[in-house]
Structure formats: structure tokens, C-alpha cells
Recover the amino acids of this structure.
């Protein structure tokens, strides 16, 4: 309609045919000519394929370079602590049994936040005042029971917490990623100590324990349950209850019993703490605790702990107060516990914020000494005072407990290379030693106790400080490599004239290969001769590869062009138009937001602000176009871009730091599911509208868009409706559909949609669907004029076909996003199409601004699909949409499509900026060059962001917020850099673009 | 609806579409509207005298005189009243600076001239409604703080729309510019002014105000918890400063380049 080339007409005039009437003599010549032409075409298409391949290889090298840089930085930044393999023993008589209990029951209630168990007056929260037994007992029977606040060390994930609770050390941030494949623990811990002292450890509950401690658990009484299916609130808990009481009441062959309940945690993940299921769960826990207390005998100690808390959304992993505060409760039928003498130590005012607290690692020496085993070798905790000051204890008991712990910590420190030379701490221990040696039965022990507490505190601080030490060499190399890759990308994509690039590619690739081998040998020999301390052989070789690529890609460029010429070219480029300036401004500002934690926190709002800036500029630019029709259409697209951006930016899942200035709007609501059903009509209709602008709604388009996409979105709507029914207790009871049937229908739907969109549709796409239709006109009245053949959709032959691939991915990504997120993705598709039209109308196809807007769109929709750059905000549950258990590709694909979906869609759409609305070109190589320019510009932008996060994260490594804000953002950028290289260059450029250009060249290129 | 267009036409469009980006930009910039005469800012006698010092004073008064930090809304209303007075004086200043076709303005009575300025102020205040909409689209809170946003919009409108209306004397549109009032008005508010922008002092103050406001949101997310970080104080200060800086850049450009 608006463009003049939406159809192609070929006229075969009769005179041309008559010319070749002299068939006899011309036949041979004609054949030869045809053969020549065919060979020429064959040669051309081979050349096209070859050049495209070389392009892809160079881009692959750049990708490898970036990945190596990120690996170096990660290795240097996320240091893991050194674990000493030593095992503590009682050989030196350093063991101490401070109780007469012969059995211990340890119940872990996952995510039992401290304010769940204390009375909170006038609170109507679902989680308050439900689990009341613990506090009542600690007030009414103080000598029999003890309730303390139990502070977890971040990261507050179950695996890390169990490690801390059994070894007494501080698991680091890196371990957080291994939550899903917990390995057998090789550090000294009290479970293995119990086993080696011939105690039987019975176990029932969360299978994280068996993953870590299976060799030490008494196999006759071990009942592990699958832990990661967070949809299921009751299976684990009912299993624990089923086995717990028979073990306590009927079996005698155990000494230590561990029970791990998961219901409260799963309820938090699934419904959040405000749901009434939380109240039911806490009341159930209350009953279980009462029953356990009734069934244990006088010689049994009962310990109840929570491993971490939960935040307002029910998730955990971070270090906010709500996440680290959990509960410690101890109970015995005979009087045993003392009390802290400080007034108001057990103050429950203000949700217990001033209540006496102990560290979670403090449980380790306490359990060890209460059961009479050696304190685990790596322990850094101190004994809990109340356990050693009760009615049956002498003052010496606490002093001994403190001394033995200090002695163990000293042992550990003397065995650690990095800790043993700290004279300040060592002197403190000398004092303790001399005090201990002079102690008698009657002497005052308070001075010794104070010294011990101080000693433990200071050595814990020193260890924390040490484990937060960074490998600056690795960090520096990582930053250097990424900076080099940025320079290469900019030079390669913008400075070198695009005519030279095909020639240059070949040289770059071969010289890189050669230099990689050279530098591999160089680095290997350097490593063998110098033996650098903090550079392993693999890392040295990786560095060799990186230097080889940097040198190999820069050498041919520097061979042709001098540095002055390149700088001159750069300055020349800066005399661009308004749009480039705007693009550069936005890139600069986006890069600078990583300099402040506040800006990172508010990145969602900043992205939408930038996008709106572009929209308004496009609106004003539209008034300057030369025809009224263009002005109207452009301003319409600009307005719809502005309004959809503003609307979609209302959806947000606030991160904790945004409170109280932000209110979460992302959630599962009925109207969102309803809107999803509406979307199944409107989204295909919108896409159809955009296709119709260039008459491209032909051929494969109706099948893909009208049938495939419409039904897919509808079925996805059904999926989330079923999910809503499953989670809504009222509907659940009213409809009375059994849980297994619902679950199996949901699995069927999700697998079906995934199979159709990602497997069937993609195979179909690789066959090369075209959105064109050939209309033969003037057939009836041949006499009047030449025969006209019209090809509808000719003007957008690349774009319309390429977009179908994006439709495939969009449908798959829609499936894995919750209803509101899915709506956001639908808007994203609309925005991308609008941007393509705007890029065409405002002539900014290969301008920097289009790339900037695309990237900003991906970030905006990352936030509006209910994500934040934090570990807690990952929607783990989407990993279980296709399978019940963790199954390699499906769980991971679910989480990746959910978290990174907007990025995948946007990265795939980059080639469309060039391909949209152009007719078949007879210069396919220059077309590929233009797409490559856009792709590398995208890569350059993302590399700017990555580089900025690397520098800023390294700069703020001592910042209070580094693990909470900077490190997660750096991880997101690292993952995005890798994803970008895979999706843009691998899938988009290499597979999809190559396929489509060759296909169309084969059809129209002759 | 579908047009049959010849193959060659399609190809020619193709080549222009695929032209390098450098060319793209130039095309947009140099694009001439054949139907509409280019709209240029009328030259002023002493351009330097219309440097908007009043916006610097307004920014100062906002804190020193009206005490915006303790009583935000009241101060904003007072500041708006003050700004109306200041802009009135600024309008008079522009009025006495016409060169060349100053014959026309002399023909008008003093009363007539003042009436024009007052009319322009009223139009500017009405224009604060669309400015408010623009602010909402840009991400201003929709459900809360609407009074503050509107006061900000009124300030912005007075700083941008009023000077440009005064300069173009929109009431004499057909005589001076050969187009209807509505066409001129639409072209003014959609910023369709062509030519060397940096020498047009009034136009530069407009751009400066917009850019200053745009940058003015920057300090809001910072977690310093200072009273001046409240909506919309930083934007307003950004607007005032941008207004002055824009004029200053233009002055430097006129005097030294």
C-alpha cells in the first residue's frame, strides 16, 4: 500500500518470443548460453555460501573471545574457599560430652522464619500466631526448652545452609549454582563424625541430605523424598510424618534422627507467605511438633530448626533480614537449659528484632559436644551458651565448651596456610591457653568465656575477609579480553569499509587459526617454565587462544589501515545524524548505570524511559517526512510504540531494594488468563495486519500465523487456566478434578506445544516457507496486452519468511511465561514489528539507534515478564512444566525460555531490521554484510554493558551490596553475552539468514 | 488495494533502502518539504539580550524564596505565579527586539502588543495539558502526584511554548509567514523549524529545556533520601538550567562562530 513494490509484474511481450523463431540454427547456441548462465549462477551461489560461511567463522571467533574473557573474570571474581580435608578426632583428649542424652531428634522445617513462631500481637497475617507451641514452652518451661533466633549466612539456599549447619563453615556464593546437583560432602561434618563414632543416623525427608550425606546415613532407616518439585506441598511432609513416629516409637537401632519438612518452603515458593495454605501448613507443623514432644523419652534431646527464612514473595537465596532470620528450638523432658542473663535478651517486641540470636554455625559445636563427638575440623562457630549453663551444669561446663571450641578453631587456623601467621589472633589464643591451664574448679570462668567469644568472633571475621579476596589477575585479564573484543567488534563492524570485509574475513580467519596455535605453544611453554601461581594450564591455554584471536583479527586490519586512518574514520563517523547521537547517548547512559547500585535497582524504569525517549523522538521526526501519508503512518506507528511501551512498563515484579516505592503488579490473576485468550485472536490479527502492509500474507503465512500461532496461544491459555484452577482452592473444591488428572493434562499440553513449536515448526521452517503468491492477470484477453504475472508479497519476501521463525520461538516462549509475562511477550512482538516499520519509514535500518532500541526492548521485557537481576527472581517452577523431575534438556530449556525469552526473540529479530520490506536483491553478499553489521553492532552494545558491569563489579568488590546487586547483574550480563553469541551469530546469522538468503537467491536470483 | 508496480521501480526503492546508514541520516536531515515553506525564526536585533536570565532566577527563587523543600505544592504554585510574571517581562523583551519587519509591530498599539503577550501566556497555560500527557507517557506516575506533574507541565509549557509563540507572533501568522494560524501553531509545537538551529536563541532555549528536564530525572533513583529528590523538583531545576544553558550555547555560537 504505502510502498511501491509490493508486487512484481513480468511482461512477456510476444515480439520477444518471435525473435527466437529460427529454432534450428539457434538451438545449440541457446543451450550453450543457458548452460553458461546456469554455471555462472552455480558459481555465484557457491561463492555466496562460501562467503557467508567465512563471515560466520569470524563471528564465531569473536564469540569465543568473549566467552574466554567472561570465564577469566568469573574465575577471578567468584572465588571458592579452600576446604581442608582434615578430620577432627578425639586422640588428644579434646572431646567433651556435656549431656547425658543418648538420643537426639533434629527436625528441620525448611524456611521457618523467626516471626512465624513468636506471638505477634494484632497481626492478621496468615503466618503469624499459628505455630505457637515453641514460644509458649520456652516461657512456661524455661528449663526444658530454649527458643533462639537463628541467623543464616547468605546465600540462603537449602544446600548451602545444610553444608553450613553440618560443617560449621561458610559456603560461598559459587556453591549456590550447585543447588541442583548436590555432591557428597567431603568436608569434616558432624554427620560423618556420628557415623565414625558408631552412632546410627536415621533420616527422613528432603533428599538433599541423602545427596550430601548418603554414605554416613544408617541405610535401614533412610527415607528420602524428591525435594525440588515445588508445586507439591504435602508429599514430603506426609512422608516424614508417616515414618517419623514409627522410628521414634518402635525402632531402637538409631542414635540420631533427622527429619526435614519442606511444606512451608514450598508453600512460600508456590503461593507466597500470605496465602491461607501457609496458615494450614504452620498449624500442621505445630501439631507434629506436639506429637513428637509427647513421644520422645527423657533421654532424648529434640532440636527444631529452620534453615533460612523467606522474603515477602516467599522466595529466598539473598541476604535480607527476612531471608536470614530463622528459628532454633531445643527441648528436653528433663530440666537442662539455662538462660542468658542480660535483661530483655528474649524480647519479642517488633517481631523479635531484638531477640537474642545465634549464628547457624553455632549449632555445630553445640551438637558435637551434646552428643560427645569431636567438633568438625573446619568449624568456625561457638557453643550456644544456654546449652551449657542449665541446672545440671557446673560453671566449668561452659568454660570447657568454649575452650574446646577455641582449641578446634586454633587447630584449623594452624593448618591453614593463609590463616596461621596472623599474630593478633594467635596471641589471643595464647591468652586463652594460659587461662585454661590455670583454671580450677572454683575459679571464676567469665573472663575465659569472654576471651573465647572474642577469639571466635575475630577468627570468623578474618575468614570471611579472606574468602572474599579476589584474584585480581584473573579479573584484569577478563576485563582486558572483553575490552579488546569490544574494540575489535567496533573496528570490524563500523570502521572497516564494508566492501573490504569479505576479503578481510578470510585473512582474519586463517591468521587467527595460525596465531592461536602459536600462542598455545607460547603459553604452554610459559606455563611449564615459569609455573605461574594462580594460572592453571587450562586457563593459560585459554589465554593463548584469546591472544591468538585478538592478534589474528587485528593483524589483517592493521596491515591495511593505519591507526591514524582508523581514528580519522571514527571521527568522520561522529558527524552523523541526530539518530546516531541519540543512540550513542543512550548507550553511554545505559553503560553508566552500572556505576551506582541505585541505578541498577531501577534499571526497569530506566529502560522504559529510554524507549519512550526514542518513541517521542520518532513521533516528532515523523512530522518532518515529505508526504502526508508517510507522516500519518509514521506518527501512528510511533504513537503505538509509545503507548504499548508505557502500558507494558506497568507490569513489574519489585525487587526487595525497590520497596517501598514500588508495588508489584506481576502475579497470576484471572484477568490475565482471560487476556491471554483474547491475545490468541488479536496477536495473529496484528501480525496479519503488518504482513498485509506489504501484501505478504500469502503462501505459508496463513498456516503459520492464523492456524499455528492462534491455536498455540489458545492452548497456552488453556494451560494457564488449568493451572489457575489447580491453585485456586475454591475452584479446586468446586470442580473437584483430581490432582493427577490435572497434572497429566498440563504435561500433555506443555509437551505438545513445545514439540510443535520448537521441533515440528522449526523443521517446517527449514524447508523454506515463502509468503508469496503468483497471480496471473490478463489471461482472458490475450489480444489486448501482454500477459502479466504478479507476485504478491514480493516486496517483503525475506522479512515475511524470516519472521515465521520468530513466530515459532515466540509461541514456545509464551508457553513458559506466566499469563502476564506472556501478554508482555505479545506486546514485544507488536513493538518489534512497529520498530521494523519505523526503521523502514525513518530510514534507520542500519542506524545505531535501531539496535539500541532492540536491546532496550529485550531488557524492558525481561523486567515486565516478572524478572529482576537477582537469583531469587528466577522462576524455578517453570523448569517443571514439561517434566516432574529434573530432566536434562527440558527443565533447563523451561528455565532458559522463561528467564531469557525476550532476549531470544529480540536477538533473533536483528536480521529483520535489514530484511524487512525489501524485494529480492541481486547483491546477496552486500545484504549479508549489512545484516552482519547490525549483528556486530548489537554485540558491541551488549559488550559495552558487559565490560561496564565487569569493571564496576570489580571496582565495588568491597561494596556492601556487591553480592546482592552487582554480582547478580554481572552474572546476567555474562549469560547474555554468551546467549547473544549463540543466538545472534549461531542461530540467527549462520543458520536462519544463510538458509533464507540462499533459498530466495535460488528462486529469484536467476 | 494492491498496486501492481513495475519491477524496476521496486528495484530503485530497494537500492535506496539499502543505502549505507551514513546516507540515511543525511537524507532525513536534508529532506525538503516541497509543499511547505521552510519556517525560520525571525532574526532579533540584539539576540544576546534575550538570554533567559529569568530562568536562573526562577531556579534560585524556588529554593530561597518559596522554600520548595518544606512545602512542595505551595511553593510550586507560587513559583508558577512568579514565572508567569517573569515570562511576561521576557515577552516584552522579545517584542522590543524585532528587527527588519518591526514596522508591523510598531503599527500595533501598546495595548495590542500586551494583549498578544497575555494571549500567548494563556495559550501556553492551555498547552500544559498536552505537556502533562507527554509527561505521563514518559513515565510520570499516573495514579499519584498528578498535581505536582501538572504544575511541572505548566512550568515547562511557559518555558518552551511561550517564548516561541512570542517570537513568531502567531496572531499575525498569515501576514508574516503565509500560512494559517493553525498550520503555524501545529508546526511550532511539533518543532518543525529548519535551518541552522544553533543560532536561533529562542529555539535553543526550548531544546535546552527539554533536554534539561530529560536529564533532570537522573538523581531521583539514587538512595540518598534527600528532600530535593522529590518529584518533580529535580526535573524543574533541570528545565530552568537547561533553558539558560541552551540560550547560552546559542549566544556563544552567535558571538564567536
Amino acid at each position: 500500500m504505502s510502498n511501491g513494490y509490493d508486487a512484481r509484474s513480468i511482461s512477456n511481450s510476444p515480439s520477444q518470443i518471435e525473435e527466437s523463431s529460427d529454432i534450428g540454427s539457434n538451438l545449440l547456441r541457446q543451450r550453450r548460453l543457458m548452460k553458461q548462465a546456469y554455471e555462472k549462477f552455480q558459481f555465484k551461489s557457491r561463492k555466496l555460501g562460501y562467503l557467508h560461511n567465512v563471515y560466520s567463522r569470524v563471528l564465531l571467533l569473536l564469540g569465543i573471545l568473549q566467552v574466554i574473557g567472561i570465564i577469566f573474570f568469573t574465575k577471578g571474581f567468584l572465588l571458592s574457599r579452600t576446604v581442608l580435608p582434615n578430620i577432627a578426632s578425639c586422640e588428644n583428649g579434646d572431646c567433651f560430652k556435656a549431656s547425658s542424652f543418648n538420643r537426639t531428634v533434629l527436625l528441620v522445617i525448611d524456611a521457618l522464619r523467626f516471626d512465624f513462631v513468636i506471638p505477634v500481637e494484632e497481626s492478621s497475617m496468615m503466618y503469624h500466631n499459628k505455630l505457637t507451641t515453641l514460644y509458649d514452652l520456652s516461657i512456661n518451661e524455661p528449663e526444658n526448652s530454649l527458643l533462639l533466633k537463628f541467623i543464616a549466612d547468605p546465600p540462603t539456599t537449602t544446600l548451602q545452609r545444610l553444608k553450613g549447619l553440618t560443617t560449621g563453615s561458610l559456603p560461598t556464593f559459587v556453591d549456590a549454582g550447585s543447588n541442583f546437583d548436590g555432591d557428597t560432602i567431603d568436608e569434616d561434618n558432624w554427620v560423618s563424625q556420628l557415623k565414625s563414632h558408631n552412632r546410627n543416623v536415621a533420616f527422613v525427608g528432603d533428599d538433599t541430605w541423602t545427596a550430601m550425606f548418603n554414605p554416613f546415613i544408617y541405610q535401614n532407616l533412610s527415607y528420602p523424598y524428591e525435594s525440588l518439585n515445588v508445586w507439591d506441598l504435602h508429599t514430603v511432609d506426609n512422608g516424614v510424618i508417616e515414618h517419623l513416629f514409627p522410628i521414634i516409637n518402635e525402632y531402637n537401632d538409631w542414635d540420631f534422627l533427622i527429619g526435614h519438612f519442606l511444606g512451608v518452603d514450598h508453600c512460600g515458593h508456590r503461593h507466597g507467605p500470605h496465602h491461607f495454605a501457609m496458615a494450614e501448613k504452620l498449624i500442621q507443623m505445630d501439631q507434629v511438633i506436639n506429637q513428637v514432644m509427647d513421644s520422645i523419652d527423657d533421654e532424648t534431646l529434640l532440636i527444631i530448626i529452620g534453615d533460612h527464612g523467606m522474603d515477602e514473595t516467599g522466595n529466598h537465596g539473598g541476604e535480607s533480614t527476612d531471608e536470614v532470620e530463622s528459628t532454633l528450638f531445643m527441648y528436653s523432658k528433663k530440666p537442662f537449659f539455662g538462660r542468658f542473663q542480660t535483661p530483655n535478651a528474649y524480647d519479642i517486641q517488633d517481631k523479635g528484632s531484638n531477640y537474642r540470636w545465634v549464628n547457624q554455625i553455632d549449632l555445630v559445636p553445640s551438637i558435637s559436644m551434646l552428643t560427645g563427638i569431636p567438633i568438625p575440623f573446619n568449624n568456625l562457630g561457638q557453643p550456644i551458651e544456654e546449652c551449657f549453663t542449665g541446672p545440671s551444669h557446673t560453671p566449668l561446663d561452659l568454660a570447657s565448651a568454649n575452650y574446646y571450641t577455641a582449641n578446634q578453631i586454633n587447630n584449623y587456623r594452624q593448618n591453614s596456610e593463609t590463616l596461621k601467621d596472623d599474630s593478633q589472633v594467635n596471641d589471643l589464643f595464647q591468652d586463652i591457653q594460659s587461662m585454661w591451664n590455670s583454671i580450677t574448679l572454683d575459679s571464676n570462668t567469665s573472663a575465659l568465656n569472654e576471651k573465647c567469644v572474642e577469639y571466635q568472633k575475630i577468627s570468623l571475621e578474618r575468614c570471611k575477609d579472606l574468602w572474599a579476596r579476589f584474584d585480581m589477575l584473573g579479573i584484569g585479564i577478563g576485563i582486558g579480553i572483553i575490552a579488546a573484543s569490544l574494540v575489535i567488534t567496533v573496528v570490524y563492524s563500523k570502521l572497516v569499509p564494508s566492501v573490504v570485509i569479505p576479503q578481510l574475513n578470510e585473512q582474519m580467519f586463517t591468521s587467527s587459526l595460525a596465531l592461536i596455535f602459536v600462542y598455545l605453544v607460547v603459553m604452554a611453554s610459559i606455563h611449564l617454565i615459569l609455573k605461574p601461581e594462580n594460572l592453571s594450564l587450562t586457563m593459560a591455554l585459554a589465554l593463548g587462544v584469546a591472544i591468538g584471536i585478538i592478534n589474528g583479527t587485528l593483524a589483517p586490519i592493521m596491515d591495511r589501515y593505519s591507526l591514524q586512518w582508523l581514528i580519522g574514520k571514527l571521527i568522520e563517523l561522529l558527524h552523523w545524524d541526530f539518530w546516531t547521537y541519540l543512540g550513542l547517548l543512550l548507550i553511554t547512559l545505559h553503560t553508566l548505570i552500572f556505576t551506582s547500585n541505585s541505578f541498577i535497582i531501577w534499571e526497569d524504569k530506566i529502560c522504559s524511559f529510554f524507549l519512550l525517549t526514542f518513541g517521542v523522538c520518532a513521533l516528532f521526526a515523523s512530522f518532518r517526512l515529505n508526504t502526508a501519508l508517510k507522516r500519518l503512518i509514521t506518527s501512528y506507528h510511533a504513537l503505538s510504540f509509545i503507548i504499548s511501551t508505557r502500558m507494558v512498563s506497568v507490569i513489574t515484579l519489585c525487587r526487595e531494594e525497590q520497596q517501598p516505592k514500588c508495588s508489584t503488579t506481576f502475579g497470576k490473576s484471572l484477568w490475565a488468563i482471560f487476556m491471554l485468550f483474547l491475545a490468541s485472536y488479536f496477536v495473529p490479527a496484528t501480525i496479519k495486519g503488518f504482513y498485509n502492509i506489504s501484501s505478504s500474507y500469502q503462501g505459508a503465512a496463513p498456516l503459520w500465523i492464523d492456524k499455528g500461532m492462534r491455536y498455540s496461544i489458545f492452548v497456552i491459555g488453556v494451560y494457564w487456566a488449568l493451572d489457575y484452577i489447580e491453585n485456586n482452592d475454591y475452584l479446586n473444591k468446586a470442580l473437584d478434578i483430581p490432582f493427577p488428572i490435572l497434572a497429566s493434562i498440563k504435561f500433555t499440553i506443555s509437551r505438545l506445544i513445545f514439540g510443535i513449536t520448537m521441533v515440528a515448526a522449526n523443521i517446517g521452517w527449514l524447508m523454506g516457507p515463502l509468503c508469496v503468491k503468483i497471480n496471473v492477470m490478463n489471461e482472458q484477453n490475450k489480444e489486448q496486452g501482454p500477459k502479466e504475472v504478479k507476485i504478491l508479497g514480493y516486496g517483503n519476501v525475506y522479512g515475511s519468511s524470516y519472521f515465521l521463525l520468530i513466530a515459532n520461538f515466540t509461541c514456545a516462549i509464551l508457553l513458559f511465561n506466566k499469563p502476564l509475562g506472556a501478554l508482555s511477550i505479545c506486546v514485544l512482538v507488536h513493538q518489534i514489528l512497529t520498530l521494523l516499520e519505523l526503521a523502514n519509514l525513518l530510514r534507520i535500518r542500519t542506524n545505531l539507534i535501531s539496535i539500541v532500541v532492540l536491546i532496550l526492548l529485550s531488557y524492558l521485557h525481561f523486567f515486565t515478564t516478572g524478572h529482576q537481576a537477582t537469583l531469587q527472581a528466577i522462576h524455578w517452577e517453570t523448569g517443571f512444566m514439561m517434566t516432574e523431575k529434573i530432566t536434562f534438556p527440558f527443565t533447563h530449556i523451561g528455565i532458559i525460555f522463561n528467564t531469557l525469552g525476550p532476549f531470544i526473540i529480540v536477538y533473533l529479530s536483528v536480521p529483520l531490521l535489514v530484511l524487512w520490506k525489501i524485494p529480492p536483491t541481486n547483491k546477496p553478499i552486500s545484504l549479508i554484510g549489512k545484516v552482519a553489521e547490525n549483528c556486530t553492532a548489537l554485540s558491541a552494545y551488549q559488550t559495552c554493558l558487559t565490560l561496564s558491569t565487569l569493571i564496576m563489579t570489580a571496582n565495588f568488590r568491597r561494596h556492601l551490596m556487591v553480592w546482592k546487586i552487582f554480582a547478580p547483574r554481572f552474572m546476567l550480563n555474562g549469560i547474555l553475552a554468551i546467549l547473544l553469541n549463540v543466538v545472534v551469530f549461531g542461530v540467527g546469522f549462520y543458520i536462519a539468514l544463510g538458509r533464507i538468503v540462499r533459498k530466495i537467491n535460488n528462486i529469484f536470483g536467476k | 488495494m494492491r498496486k501492481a508496480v513495475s519491477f524496476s521501480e521496486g528495484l530503485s526503492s530497494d537500492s535506496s533502502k539499502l543505502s549505507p546508514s551514513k546516507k540515511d541520516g543525511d537524507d532525513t536531515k536534508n529532506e525538503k518539504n516541497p509543499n511547505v515553506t521552510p519556517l525560520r525564526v525571525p532574526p532579533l536585533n540584539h539576540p544576546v539580550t534575550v538570554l533567559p536570565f529569568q530562568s536562573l532566577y526562577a531556579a534560585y527563587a524556588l529554593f530561597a524564596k518559596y522554600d520548595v523543600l518544606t512545602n512542595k505544592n505551595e511553593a510550586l504554585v507560587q513559583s508558577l505565579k512568579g514565572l508567569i510574571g517573569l515570562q511576561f517581562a521576557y515577552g516584552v523583551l522579545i517584542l522590543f527586539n524585532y528587527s527588519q519587519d518591526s514596522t508591523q509591530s510598531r503599527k500595533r498599539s501598546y495595548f495590542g502588543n500586551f494583549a498578544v503577550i497575555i494571549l500567548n501566556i494563556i495559550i501556553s497555560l492551555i498547552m500544559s495539558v498536552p505537556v502533562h500527557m507527554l509527561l505521563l507517557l514518559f513515565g510520570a506516575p499516573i495514579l499519584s502526584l498528578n498535581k505536582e506533574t501538572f504544575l511541572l507541565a505548566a512550568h515547562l509549557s511557559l518555558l518552551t511554548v511561550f517564548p516561541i509563540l512570542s517570537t513568531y507572533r502567531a496572531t499575525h501568522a498569515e501576514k508574516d509567514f503565509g500560512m494559517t494560524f493553525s498550520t503555524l501553531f501545529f508546526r511550532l509545537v511539533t518543532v518543525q523549524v529548519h535551518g541552522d538551529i544553533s543560532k536561533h536563541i529562542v529555539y535553543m532555549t526550548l531544546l535546552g529545556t527539554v533536554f534539561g528536564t530529560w536529564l533532570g530525572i537522573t538523581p531521583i533513583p539514587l538512595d540518598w533520601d534527600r528532600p530535593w529528590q522529590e518529584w518533580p523538583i529535580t526535573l524543574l531545576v533541570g528545565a530552568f538550567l537547561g533553558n539558560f544553558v541552551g540560550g547560552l550555547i546559542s549566544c556563544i555560537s552567535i558571538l564567536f562562530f
User: Anything to note?
Assistant: The two ends of chain B are 53 Å apart (CA to CA). Residues 45-256 of chain B form one domain. Chain B has one domain: 45-256. Confidence is low (pLDDT under 50) at residues 1-35 of chain B.
